[in-house]
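Section 3.1: Structural characterization of target chains.
Under the original work plan, the team committed to producing a structural model for every single-chain target entering the pipeline before any wet-lab resources were allocated. The record below documents one such target. The sequence was received from the expression subgroup and is listed exactly as submitted; it comprises 667 residues.
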Amino acid sequence: MESDFLTSLVIIFGASALVVFLLHRLKIPSIVGFLVTGVIIGPYGIGLVEDVRAVEMMAEIGVILLLFTIGVEFSITKLLRIKKSVLGGGGVQVTLTICLSAIAVYLVTGHVNTSVFMGFLVALSSTAIVLKMLSERGETDTPHGRMMVGILIFQDLCVVPMMLLVPALSGEGINVTDVVIKMLKAALIIAAVLTSARWLVPNLLHQIVRTRSRELFITVIILFCLGIALLTSKFGLSLALGAFLAGLIISESEYAHQAAADILPFKESFMGLFFVSVGMLMNAGHMAGNWQKISLTVALIFGLKVITGVISVLAIGSPFRTAVSAGLGLAQIGEFSFVLAVAGKTSGLISEDLYQIFLSSSVATMLISPFVIKAAPSVSAWIASRRLLEKVDKLKTISREGPPAKRQGHVIIIGFGLNGKNLARVLREAEIPYVVLEMNSDTVRVMMKKGEPIYYGDGTGAAILHKLNIGRARLLVVAISDPASSRTIVSVARHENPDIYIIVRTRYITEVDELVKLGANEVIPEEFETSVEIFSRVLHNYQVPENIIADYIGSIRKGSYSVLRTVELPPKHLSERYNFLKDIETETYLIKEDSRVSGHSIKELHLRAETGVTVIAVQRGEEIHQNPSPDLELKSGDVLLLIGRKKDINHAREYLGSDRYIAIKYH
């Protein structure tokens, strides 16, 4: 039995490696490769793997680890920041999707209970696929990324009441008291888990880290992840939601980044198993025989979910472009829908034929989803640029905050995150005029009350940039986390003002060339700015002159970091200079009241000739004499700054404390 399971794992990983590699050459996302692998080697394909249940059990661990790492990177503070998208956007999306889906299914089946249950299945989106794609593309913290994460969290919370309502929909009746008790238990466990994030867990992890045992640290982290997931599942919540809460707990400690790094290899391996297991569910024979029904179902699911996603995001005040991106990203069926579907089939809510059609359609939406998410920013930007929709956003923006005052020679800051806030603070202190454009309406409302010249709007539109008087602006700084939007803003801004100086901050070096091509004057990638800071400190430690370091930094930035993107060996003279300077030190020497040095000039000491040490500065009270004259007369209380080799400085200290210089003077 053990050898059979091991054989299945070898087949899965071997086939996955081959398929993912081949599809990667075609620039097809790895998720699709894993899904295709499952279809090929599964029981409905060539049948290399028959024990699907064992694979599914390991696949669940993949989902748990994915949600755990997302929770670690998310933090409770960030979760509270998106509470509007969780409660508002998620509530509207789930409710609207259930209602519209139920109506569509009722027109086909004529059964109310079945229709409502199918609405439950369609309402959920794939947390695993969406979060993995957002993470790979660096879009988790973009406006549409935050909306999608918030709605996904709400969907996971809805799994509990949906499961509790299955008996009622199947006609078995429902115990209201039992439902209330289970809901209270779920709320209690969530509250207990989040409370422990503040006090219990950080202290416990501190004690673990003090042992300096990496093995113990990893063991405890995995225990937290799987243990809390299991605990929440016992109270009726999903395993994935429990893992997400476990990640939130760890995120409140200073060990969050190390925990995420240690879990990453496990997560990637098990996530591949998850997508392979989903692909194994697809019955290729059934799909071939019912391709018309399945194609229509997939089209209806995508169309309906895009519409409800767009409406839900618009309902909480986000721009149309953000709403379209989020709607396209959430258009697939979720992995927890499979769990619900099995429960519904067991209860007799859906027939075997309907179950198979739903299953095939769900896997098809998952296969298509990576391509849709990849294209979503471009598609949403194109749709939002249509004249009618651009006018809608324009009216909404102006009516909400009012047009900013006319300015000229000012700086336009797009995005008011950490970088935008720091820049605004410096500009304010330097009395340089500026305006800020931000898409978070809550941030705009709060900062306007504090007197910040900030306005709500989407910088990808020419209309709002005109309102900020871009034609007379001197400089534009793009400091947002949305690569697609950054590219659009640069292109539009350069077209509207050919003379404006554009600085763009980006997370990834791969964006640099494209942004420069579109018209950016400077692109600052976070990845390489960190590298610049590190190597400048290393060179400084090797006694490389500050002006040489500054020249290196200037040339690197001037060439859009091309130096760091190619393999070049450092100049040979750096190592030679280090060998020359590595023994050079500086040290101070205090002239005491009874010192015989007092009353004599530097020239009279013959210090350099006798010891090889030079006096490069003299501090006298608050006054500092840099590069002092040889004729400077030294006094008691003066502090000499000496430079030379360590052994020479030791010699100089002895020399200054002796009578030798007097003998030399009168020689």
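Residues 325 and 376 are 5 Å apart (CA to CA).
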